[in-house]
Design a protein that fits this description.
The complex is a heterotrimer of chains A (296), B (420) and C (530). Chain A has twelve helices and two strands. With 296 residues, chain A is mainly α. Chain A has one domain: MetI-like (MetI-like fold, Orthogonal Bundle), CATH 1.10.3720. In chain A, a hairpin with a 5-residue loop joins strand 1 and strand 2. Chain A is globular, with a radius of gyration of 24 Å. Chain B is an alpha/beta fold. Chain B folds into two domains: 218 residues, Periplasmic binding protein-like II (D-Maltodextrin-Binding Protein, domain 2); 194 residues, 3-Layer(aba) Sandwich (D-Maltodextrin-Binding Protein, domain 2). Chain B is built from 19 helices and eleven strands. Helix content of chain C is 65%, strand content 9%. Chain C is built from 22 helices and six strands. Chain C is α+β, with helices and mostly antiparallel strands. The chains are: A mainly alpha (296), B alpha/beta (420), C alpha+beta (530). Chains in contact: A-B, A-C, B-C. The interface between A and B is large, with 36 and 38 residues.
């Protein structure tokens, strides 16, 4: 602590160096390339041309499907993050109870998390097929329905399915974050609350929720980023059909780039998405950081 | 920090050395080849043991020891992503097998066929196929294989219901109604595929059958012609009347083929490989092939689809002549009837070269009829630069119309976009 | 102690049980099931009422109806004519005849059939009977006694009654659903060639149950379009049994509410588990189906009729083990590298004070905000410069980099949660900062490190988009890309796709289960202080 101030100021940065190098080379460099490309002309087959200013951005904003896609993306992120947080929280509360088979139940909950999204999306795509899907097969063979049901009869319903699969794969992550938060709560807090005459809801809102909130906020911010950038579910299940009405931003710009071959606007759109995410995360960071400052 | 720098340098040097050694150890010319995956056998044939226990790459390299092939079989889902990314990085493959070529040619990325294709091989291609790959009087790609489409009908259903095979649109509507009545809607009479994957085919089936199409007689874009609007409205009316599969925007042709194989679909416009496909799926369907129905009083037209092989420029290659020669050798070996016949018949396609016809007809006499169909086929205007935009545009227009928009407005908007 | 309360409650419970069972017996006597069997159908296209063909068909149908009447069935002939004018102005006509028999049955009549659902009903009745016996034997002369003070056999008897009535509650929907399965399905479809061997026996039983065996050999055609319906009152049976079970619970435990909440908890957990496992059930079942059966458009079989084990050998032949090995290398390498870079960074963030700390944290989280799909071109360009295209090393580096944010955030939380006193003590003993990290902090932070390991491993294991573009040699593909050879838009081989998916999922799940305990405790420290 006293061996010369220069060394002291440098040491932390040396510890950070490997990480900075890794991120700098393999993440930031490609990001810089994407930014540069967003101001360049790009041919249909991908040849990068000269600087054309903001034309790509103007094209992107004036795309006919732009509004629909933004709206879809909003609902996608909101419903998947929101509902998976809510359901994950409830499931975590239940799994925190003592009961026979709790360990098995927890292990089962891990499954969706351990399976890649491409596979999950394919399985659900197979499950809800009308003509031979597994859901119709099981329900018919159990005698619960009389005739095969068209589970994807309109694009709105298909979008709901996509959100449902998104929620399904996100719940375990939230549930385990909350569960870990719950386990760290001291039992004596509840006991003294019961002595004070607190009911179930009192305990939930006055003890449990405040104490797991930090765990929830970490999982939420990471979820927002991952869900916003999630690609395989929508791409595997509908490819955005009909006419981009079920696309989210990421799948839309992929279709734009490799199907419509309008690579300029696609790149610009990705930068727009990045900025939106930055703003959201920035707001979050500020609130979290402020709280942390007051802690230390 | 110094230590880290040193380590990194060592690492970089090692990487460079490995790369250098790899270069030195290999033959004179290396060719990067990308092949699309046509079916479960493609990978086996090129890289596995699907060619009499050996594979294409092994055999080729044995015959041409001075050429090394880096051949990659890529799924159709990913091939555009991979190729476009490589092009953006100036790392295009040397040889590419894909469906479209105009974008690459217009960006000046392709070698003219005359630069590398041996004369005798060039004259072996069907001339009408070669014509499909011409921009500004230069041939940019050679045909790889083709398929022709016709209407497949489930003969047992037609017999049971007691109806004739439809040749016109109104007969088609009658047949659909009769099938619906007879089976209480348990069997879909007609398959429609307006998906993001192949919705342009549906556009072709109906507009070409009504004297319309993507382009007018001068070869200019004319997607919003009255014939086209009428034709697509007819297709939409079939969907609306419940004559078709329930989800045309997401049920691909392969979904429809599966239904056809299971006897759930009575009629389907499909390529000539359908019988092979149905047999693979364990289906036992008594099927009959007829012309695609046309509007009353209009001529029926069949739809042909053709894929291509093209070679990219590589300015970094030291010996351009040797490279061109190697590409020629690749093509020569690929189109050698001994290899090519196996390739084409394996996935049930139609050939693109004359020398393969004899062997194919000998193996399967039904081939001859298909070659006739192929002779009268119309192809997509893939040589036009705006083709991608038109293709996606008509698909979006169809899908929007399926969810309630007016098809005329949609096509008008697309045409305006193309003009402006 | 509470005997005076328990006794009247016990009496009410006994009353409830007997009333519920009596009502159930009454309900079962009502004719709740109605059947319409088109024992014979004939459709004739291009047939007009009155023409020769019509007469011919009509005569045929009438002869058929007579045959059924001779067998002692009361049948009616149903005739529908569909006339349409086609596009050429010609009238078409479709005549459909069917011979129908309509009849009703009550639930008791299911007792003496030998259909699967009849067996269930027999078990249900047995349970109810035994339940009554147990209740009576368990509570005779001691109804008001507090459960804890009862003799052991009585406790067991009362408990058995709860279980038996509970079984009835569970079996009722099984019985109803089994009947639905038997009667509601369009049985005509069973005539297709995909029928399995058990068909004959099953239809024989159905014939004996529904028609007293009068159909004989003509069973196939006769059962075409059998339709059955049951009144929703059938579900009342379940309610009544549930009431009986509640009564039994009151007698056994003296408290209904607590037990009820417990049952609710198990029901919820079971529901969550079933939904979660369902896709894996689908994977497993489909992985062993034949190609044709994966597209079972008549929904004939819930399970594969024949388990095709060769699907597994096929995917192994087509390179899946190689892909799995590649994935292990990529995910393992990326995890190690991400930890090697992430631990020092997280340590610095947790233990040192310096300028730019917040900027670094922001920088780290920002690095996650571009989807890899978007960065494809940049990454591939970078790999060209570094000569790492088409190498597993390239994938390792990329995956490690893209997981830095996760690693640093989680590890930092873990380190912050551990008190620095131990390290300071170690330093006073002459340890370097590095030594205090490796010898003191890391062992203490093991759970958090395990958690992070898992996160990074999973993310790298599941990465798909970058690998498709970066890797062009088939033998270097990771599993996520490798399985695309089974599913492209021009052909999906569901059985291979799911077999490979299972193989790809199992190692990760096993890994997860092995360290599940560490995982939750690790997340604790990471989460709370995050």
């Amino acid at each position: 602590m006293n061996a010369g101030s220069r060394k002291n100021t440098l040491t932390p940065y040396l510890w950070l160096l490997p990480s900075i190098l890794l991120i700098g080379i393999f993440v930031v460099f490609p990001i810089v390339i994407v930014f540069r490309m967003s101001f360049s002309e790009i041919s249909k087959s991908g040849v990068i041309g000269g600087f054309i200013g903001l034309k790509n951005y103007k094209d992107a904003v004036s795309l006919p499907a732009f509004g629909t896609v933004m709206k879809n993306t909003f609902w996608w992120v909101l419903s998947v993050v929101g509902l998976s947080t809510l359901l994950g929280f409830i499931i975590a509360l239940v799994l925190n109870q003592e009961f026979a088979g709790r360990k098995i139940a927890r292990s089962i909950l891990i499954f969706p998390w351990a399976t890649s999204l491409v596979i999950q999306a394919s399985v659900w795509n197979y499950i809800i097929k009308y003509e031979y899907g597994s859901l119709n097969n099981v329900l018919l063979n159990l005698g619960i329905i009389k005739n095969a049901v068209n589970w994807r009869s309109s694009y709105q319903i298909e979008f709901i399915w996509e959100c449902g699969v998104g929620i399904f794969v996100t719940i375990p992550f939230v549930a385990f974050c909350v569960l870990s938060g719950l386990q760290s709560i001291d039992e004596s807090l509840y006991e003294s609350a019961i002595v004070d005459g607190a009911g179930f809801w009192d305990k939930l809102f006055k003890i449990t929720l405040p104490l797991v909130r930090p765990a929830l906020s970490v999982s939420t911010v990471l979820n927002i980023i991952y869900v916003f950038n999630s690609f395989p579910i929508v791409y595997t299940m509908t490819k955005g059909a009909p006419a981009n009405k079920t696309d989210t931003m990421i799948t839309y710009l992929y279709m734009l780039s490799f199907y419509d071959r309008r690579k300029g606007p696609a790149i610009a759109l990705s930068v727009i998405g990045f900025v939106i995410l930055c703003i959201c995360a920035g707001i979050y960071m500020m609130t979290v950081m402020r709280k942390e400052d007051s802690e230390s | 920090m110094k230590k880290m720098m040193r380590n990194m340098m060592i690492f970089a040097a090692a990487a460079a050395m490995t790369a250098g050694m790899a270069m030195a150890a290999h033959a004179e010319v290396e060719l990067d080849v990308i092949i699309c995956q046509y079916g479960p056998n493609t990978n086996e044939w090129f890289l596995g043991s699907g060619m009499d226990g050996s594979n294409f790459v092994e055999k080729f390299e044995a015959e041409n020891p001075d050429i090394k092939l880096n051949l990659d079989v890529v799924s159709w889902n990913d091939v555009y992503t991979e190729v476009d990314t490589r092009i953006a990085n100036n790392n295009a493959p040397d040889i590419l097998n894909i469906d479209v070529f105009a974008n690459y040619a217009n960006d000046g990325l392709l070698l003219p066929v005359s630069d590398y294709c041996p004369e005798d091989l060039y004259s072996d291609f069907f001339p009408s196929f070669i014509d499909q790959s011409v921009i500004d009087d230069t041939v940019w790609a050679v045909p790889d294989l083709a398929s022709a489409r016709a209407l497949f009908c489930n003969a047992d259903i037609f017999e049971e219901v007691g109806i004739e095979y439809p040749t016109t649109w109104s007969e088609l509507e009658d047949a659909c109604q009769a099938i619906i009545d007879f089976y209480d809607g348990e069997i879909y009479p007609w398959g429609v595929d307006m998906t993001t994957d192949e919705g342009q085919a549906a556009f072709a089936y109906y507009t070409w059958g009504n004297g319309g199409g993507f382009v007018d007689e001068n070869g200019e874009w004319a997607v919003n012609s009255d014939e086209n609007v009428e034709a697509i409205n007819f297709a939409l009316s079939l969907v609306e009347n419940g004559f078709t599969n329930p989800n045309p925007a997401t049920q691909t042709r392969y979904d429809l083929q599966d239904m056809f194989a299971a006897g759930k679909l009575a009629m389907l416009i499909a390529p000539n490989q359908l019988p092979t496909y149905v047999a693979d799926k364990g289906g036992d369907i008594n099927m009959v092939t007829v012309n695609i129905p046309a509007a009353d009083g209009k001529a029926s037209s069949s739809v042909g689809v053709m894929d291509r092989v093209m070679a990219f420029k590589d300015d970094t290659a030291e010996d351009q002549d040797a490279r061109n020669e190697a590409i020629g050798k690749f093509l020569k070996f690929f189109y050698d009837p001994e290899n090519y016949v196996g390739w084409v018949s394996m996935e049930g396609f139609l050939p693109a070269v004359n020398s393969a016809v004899e062997a194919l007809v000998e193996a399967d006499p039904t081939f001859e009829a298909w070659l006739d169909v192929l002779g009268g086929c119309q192809f997509y205007p893939t040589a036009k630069a705006e083709w991608d935009q038109v293709k996606q545009g008509v698909i979006a227009a169809e899908q929007n119309a399926l969810t309630g928009s007016d098809i005329k407005e949609e096509l008008d908007a697309l045409q305006a976009q193309l003009a402006g | 102690m509470k005997t005076e309360k328990l006794l009247p409650r016990g009496r009410i419970a006994l009353l409830v049980i007997s009333a519920a069972l009596a009502l159930a017996a009454a309900l079962m006597s009502l004719p709740l099931y109605s059947f319409t069997a088109s024992v014979y159908t004939k459709k004739s296209a291009n047939t007009f009422v009155g023409d020769d063909k019509y007469k011919e068909v009509r005569a045929e149908v009438e002869a058929e109806a007579k045959a059924y009447e001779e067998k002692g069935m009361a049948v009616t002939i149903d005739e529908t004519v569909t006339e349409r004018t086609n596009s050429k102005g010609k009238t078409t006509s479709l005549v459909a005849f069917s011979i129908q028999e309509t009849f009703r049955k009550n639930i008791w009549s299911f007792l003496n059939g030998d259909l699967p659902s009849c067996r269930v009903l027999q078990i249900m009745l047995l349970c109810a009977l035994l339940g009554v016996v147990c209740t009576l034997a368990g509570s005779a002369f001691c109804l008001g006694q507090v459960p804890k003070t009862l003799s052991r056999p009585k406790r067991v008897l009362r408990g058995a009654a709860c279980v038996l009535f509970g079984l009835d509650v569970i079996l009722t929907p099984v019985f109803i659903l089994m009947n639905n399965h038997t009667f509601w399905r369009k049985l005509g479809l069973y005539n297709s060639e995909l029928i399995t061997d058990g068909k004959e026996a099953f239809f024989g039983k159905l014939d004996r149950f529904l028609f007293g065996g009068s159909l004989g050999d003509g069973i196939d055609a006769a059962l075409k379009n059998l339709s059955a319906d049951h009144s929703p009152l059938v579900w009342g049976l379940m309610l009544l049994f549930a009431l009986a079970a509640l009564g039994a619970v009151q007698i056994r435990f003296g408290a209904v509410k607590k037990t009820f909440l417990r049952v609710l908890l198990y029901v919820f957990v079971a529901a969550v588990c079933i939904v979660t496992l369902y896709p894996y059930y689908v994977m497993l079942i489909t992985a062993f189906r034949s190609n044709a059966e994966t597209l079972d458009m008549y929904f004939l079989n819930m399970l594969p009729t024949k388990w095709i084990w060769s699907n597994l050998t096929d995917i192994i032949r087509r390179g899946v083990p190689r892909f799995l090995a590649n994935s292990v290398m990529v995910a393992g390498g990326a995890t190690v590298l991400a930890m090697l870079c992430g631990i020092p960074a997280a340590f610095a963030m947790a233990r040192m004070r310096f300028r730019g700390k917040k900027i670094f944290l922001g920088f780290v989280i920002m690095s996650q905000m571009f989807s890899p799909v978007v960065l494809l071109i940049g990454i591939s360009q970078l790999m060209n410069i570094l000569h790492l295209n088409d190498t597993i090393l390239g994938l390792v580096l990329i995956n490690a980099a893209f997981n830095q944010a996760f690693a640093i955030w989680l590890l930092r939380g873990t380190f912050v949660a551990i008190s620095p006193e131990m390290e300071q003590a170690a330093k006073i003993d002459g340890c370097t900062t590095f030594g205090s990290l490796t010898r003191v902090l890391l062992p203490m932070a093991a759970p958090g490190i395990v958690t992070t390991l898992i996160f990074v491993f999973i993310n790298a294991w599941n990465e798909y988009t970058i690998s498709t573009v970066l890797i062009s040699t088939a033998s270097k593909r990771p599993i996520t890309v490798g399985i695309t050879q089974f599913s492209s838009f021009n052909m999906i081989e569901w059985q291979y796709l799911f077999a490979a998916s299972l193989l790809a999922t199992i190692p990760v799940v096993i890994l997860f289960m092995a360290i599940e305990k560490h995982l939750t405790s690790g997340l604790t420290s990471g989460g709370v202080k995050g």
